[in-house]
Fold each of these.
Amino acid sequence: MIRIGNFPDTVNEYAARSVAALVVILSLSTIFTQSLWLAAALAYGFAARVLYGPKFSVFAKLAIHGIVPIFGLGNKTVAGPPKRFAQLVGLVFSGTAFALLYFGQIFFFQIVLGILVFFATLESVLGFCAGCFVFGFLIKWGLIPEEVCEKCNQLDFATKK
């Protein structure tokens, strides 16, 4: 039986950055082609990663079993819950972009996916996860209980003091 919500407690930072690079490529392809199929694939990938982690995500499988070992990127373990939150934000953006494209709102579709490209590029190139940054604030403000991310407490979030 498939268990929804089976996201790992920790993830490999280099795999996450590789997935972000693949998201940039697919997002740019979707912007330029205005393909509903590509937009749907993008949203599916985020949904799969939010619900199941890498289990049903083609990009995650490619990153974990292909990109990371081929390029010898190694393993840098980071907390999973902030990454899951970032994937949820990506799902909101990609789902919104899909709906905008479906209803013919091309300009707004391009803006929404452009924002997604910007933040996915920050993640893939610089290793800055904006969703993770926001997640740290949500914990600090008490909107997310600290128990959700016990491993996060061991990491140095810029928002934690």
Amino acid sequence: MHELAITQSVVDAVCERAAGRPVRSVVVRVGALTAVVADSMRFCFDLVTEGTVAEGALLEIDQPPGSARCRTCGVEFALADLIPLCPCGSADVRVTSGRELQIVSMKVG
């Protein structure tokens, strides 16, 4: 379950940035192609925030869908899974979204 390690890293960064102030909410962006299960991350968040300044904070997860642009035909298309294949049949694609994994914002106070 890699969600635990990822969530622990998020909480560590949030707590460091909070500098002792209580954290009320955290917004993260986790792209659909990262293979992170949002419900697992929420569960882990409650576990790893226990005893920290982020205990009781609300976790909001934004999950942008995967998309790519084909280098062969130039079309932009949605990626539903981790296999980047253009509708034209080309595998020469550039993923343009869905791999994000970042802390967007947090509320303290």
